[in-house]
Amino acid sequence: MAKKPIILGIETSCDETAVSLIQDDEDGVPKILSNIISSQFDIHKEFGGVVPELAARSHVEKIDLIAKKAIKESGVSIDKISAIAATVGPGLIVCLTVGLNFGKAMASSLNLPFIGVNHLEGHALSPKLHTKLDFPYLLLLISGGHSQYLSVNGLGKYKRLGTTIDDALGEAFDKTAKLLGIEFPGGPKLEKFAEKGDPNKFKLPKPIINKGGCNLSFAGLKTSILKITKAIKTKQEKFDLAASFQKTIEEILYIKTKVAFEEFRNINSHDKSSFVVAGGVAANKGIRKKLVQVSNENNFQPIFPDLKLCGDNAAMIAMVGLEKYKLKKFDNLDLPASPRLPLDKNAKFLKGAGVEL
Ligand code: KG4
Ligand code: ZN
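That is the input. Now the predicted structure with zinc ion docked in place:
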């Protein structure tokens, strides 16, 4: 029987140092042998956001230890590894460089193929670590840096249907949390705040809700929240504002996802298609519930990564590495980090003011 490939994945694009080993399996869903993630929340929380130089320094300090731990936990001897995959972008260049160089050094010293992975493709393929999933499918990628609807047509084959024209959804959660006095990273904690509040207390705007196809916009929401926070005083009012924000986001995604379904169906003729929701914000329970509802109403099969695979991790990087390994898509050791790497290379850069929709 042919040997089932084992891929070691490395992720250091932002503030998580992560290494994972996965092994291919006959049923099409690989086995996660180890998945070590070391977060840097404590380093960055006093600054209210990620400080690139501190993040990079921490990656340098930890990567060796995390890799050793991941290999040990996997129970795999180092000579059984088939290839090394590392995130090449997008992300903070000083952080990407640490994982990329570590991965190249490992590949070179072990004489193994090296594979550069697009971090966003990692999120896109993350449910493949536990669910059999065929192309094409619709993807909603909602993370700290991105909010996009894409038709995923194959490995490396993406057509962007819509994107945010200003803030990413995770960014909107984090900024709102900050205005409510919640410690960084506020997204997950904001959800807890929202559970204690009245979602109908404050009426918040839904920018570009009836125009711009399935493009998204969250900046107007933040401005409105800023005004309200200046006027509110009690803790309960904060809970109410968090609940109103959470509800507004759910409603925006409900409406825009319906548009994305139509656009996806216009280019793909499948009856029952899969709808994957990935990225850090896909961990949000209220958003999951609303997107399951809109999927059921429109004959789409909703698929979410396991909670531990929503945020940044290296198993998703190894997953893309495995798919590329099977196609022998290897990279040279001079592959540079790409801080702005997109998924759909033909899509226009929409971010910024004055965008015509
Ligand atoms: O995918 P990710 O781990 O990193 C990026 O690639 O950006 O996403 C991180 C983002 C942060 O903005 C974080 O606040 C947000 O995901 N997030 C959440 C939740 N969990 C993480 N936002 C809302 N609700 C959550 N439960
Ligand atoms: Zn990410």
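The CA atoms of residues 81 and 346 lie 35 Å apart.
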